[in-house]
Design brief:
Distance between the termini: 191 Å
Largest sheet: 5 strands, mixed
Helix content: 55-70%
Number of strands: 5
Radius of gyration: 50 Å
Order of helices and strands: HHHEHEEHEHHEHH
Strand content: 15-25%
Structural class: alpha+beta
Shape: elongated
Number of helices: 9
Length: 310
């Protein structure tokens, strides 16, 4: 018996690619044997010249018209999100209640932004995001609306059924291609061919990881719904008045600070005067000399004697 010719790994790789394309189209393919079996009764009837049974045709028509209703319809895969804006009496207490509601509905707290009022007369606000199972979405929204006065409420849904079906089909085809490439790797071949198949196998596995991650993300978004809650306190928060002791301490601190600044100012003035003291001394000396000189230049007027009486 002669040995069978050994197939090249490159040809096998091409065969694997063609096999993957054929698998994706196998759902719409019908074998010639099945076609022949379906066409055989019609051929026999045409040869024998026998008319088609009307009752059988009517039964067949009725069965065809009833068959779609018997096929169960697939439920749409929806990604639901919601937003609720509520005015409450106390934001701090409401945050604790929302956390308790999320735990009660088998959910989780995803985000919390507590914005305390910074200016007098401003409102205390907060933003929360929780995730709950989709079947508990309506019950969660109902519980949230009972926390205060609802200002805004909305729920949106996105149908991702086609995306799920596409990703599942892509994942099945990629796994079949991976299995085929693994079979090729187990066969003998040149080093270049093996490296080329290994590179193709790595690309296929990367695609499998990406598609699998996208599929899991879609399934997780369908299973759990995200709710965004905006809280606003009804009354404004006024700043607390400082105590008497704090006021006295603050006044003493300001007064000592003022005294310290005044003392430092006097010291600086003294240093300036000390630095300019020679010039000041010269100016004083010149002033004294000029005064004496003017006093010496004035004529001395003698007092006249009073007239004597005769």
């Amino acid at each position: 018996m002669s040995a069978l010719p050994r197939q090249s790994p490159l040809r096998l790789l091409l065969l694997a690619t063609m096999l993957s394309a054929a698998i994706s189209a196998c759902g719409s393919y019908r074998s010639p044997t099945v076609n022949k079996a379906l066409q055989a009764p019609a051929a026999e009837n045409s040869i024998a010249g026998a008319p088609i049974d009307q009752k059988r045709a009517a039964d067949q028509t009725e069965a065809d018209s009833a068959s779609p209703s018997t096929v169960p319809k697939q439920q749409p895969q929806l990604v639901k999100t919601g937003t609720v804006t509520v005015t409450v009496d106390s934001v701090a207490q409401t945050i604790e209640k929302i956390t308790a509601i999320a735990r009660q509905q088998q959910g989780d707290l995803l985000e919390l932004q507590d914005q305390l009022p910074q200016d007098p007369g401003s409102h205390h606000t907060a933003l929360l995001q929780i995730r709950v199972p989709q079947q508990n979405l309506e019950a969660t929204v109902k519980a949230l609306t009972q926390l205060g006065t609802v200002q805004q409420q909305s729920i949106s849904a996105e149908d991702v059924s086609s995306q799920l079906v596409d990703n599942q089909a892509r994942l099945r085809n990629l796994r079949k291609t991976e299995a085929t490439l693994l079979e090729i790797m187990n066969r003998s071949g040149s080093v270049a061919d093996v490296l080329q198949v290994a590179q193709e196998l790595s690309n296929v596995r990367n695609s499998i990881e990406q598609v699998d991650a996208q599929l899991k993300d879609l399934q997780n978004r369908v299973a759990y719904s995200v709710l965004t809650i905006n809280l606003q306190q009804a009354t404004t928060t006024m700043p607390a008045q400082p105590e008497l002791q704090k006021q006295v301490q603050e006044t003493w601190k300001q007064s000592t600070h003022s005294v310290g600044e005044f003392t430092v100012g006097l010291m600086k003035l003294g240093l300036w005067l000390l630095a300019y003291s020679p010039y000041l001394f010269m100016l004083i000396l010149v002033a004294v000399v000029m005064r004496r000189w003017r006093s010496q230049d004035r004529p001395i007027v003698s007092n006249p004697e009073p007239p004597t009486s005769s």
